[in-house]
Amino acid sequence: QVQLVESGGGSVQAGGSLKLSCVVSPRTVRTYYMGWFRQAPEKEREFVAGIRWSDGTQFYADSVKDRFTISGDSTETTIYLQMNSLKLEDTAIYYCASDVRTNGALVLASPIGDFYSWGQGTQVTVSS
């Protein structure tokens, strides 16, 4: 059973920065792409950023382009999301996701592909 564990959320003032991390286990799991989604109160979960391991291509939602950067390590089991110039509207629970199929019901599409497995989420709160 694949597991994704996020860390790095917290509270920050508008204009500040945070860096999220996500580790997938077991380390033998093979993913072709991973990414980040977020869900604000009373809103649907939305794609934020994704990275494709084969060529390192990154995908971003327009709302975070030029402010957020997704990256990964050489093991292809850990990804990061560097978030700069944070805005109030970035407040949400951020979820790490991968293309590994599970028995879960949630499948979301994105520009990089469909995501099938999810972390528990980490809260990001941006205040004025």
Mean pLDDT: 96
Tally of alpha and pi helices:
0
Quaternary assembly: single chain
Counted beta strands = 11
Sheet having the most strands = 7 strands, mixed
Q: How much strand?
A: over 45%
Model description:
This protein has strands spanning 3-7, 10-13, 18-25, 33-39, 46-52, 58-60, 68-72, 78-83, 92-98, 117-118, 122-127. It is built from no helices and eleven strands. The protein is mainly beta and 128 residues long. A hairpin with a 5-residue loop joins strand 7 (68-72) and strand 8. The strands form two sheets. Strands 2, 4, 5, 6, 9, 10 and 11 form a seven-stranded mixed sheet that branches. It is globular. The termini are far apart.
Brief overview, please?
The chain is mostly beta strands and 128 residues long. The chain has strands at 3-7, 10-13, 18-25, 33-39, 46-52, 58-60, 68-72, 78-83, 92-98, 117-118, 122-127.
Topology:
Elements: E1 3-7, E2 10-13, E3 18-25, E4 33-39, E5 46-52, E6 58-60, E7 68-72, E8 78-83, E9 92-98, E10 117-118, E11 122-127
Parallel strand pairs: 2-11
Antiparallel strand pairs: 1-3, 3-8, 4-5, 4-9, 5-6, 7-8, 9-10, 9-11
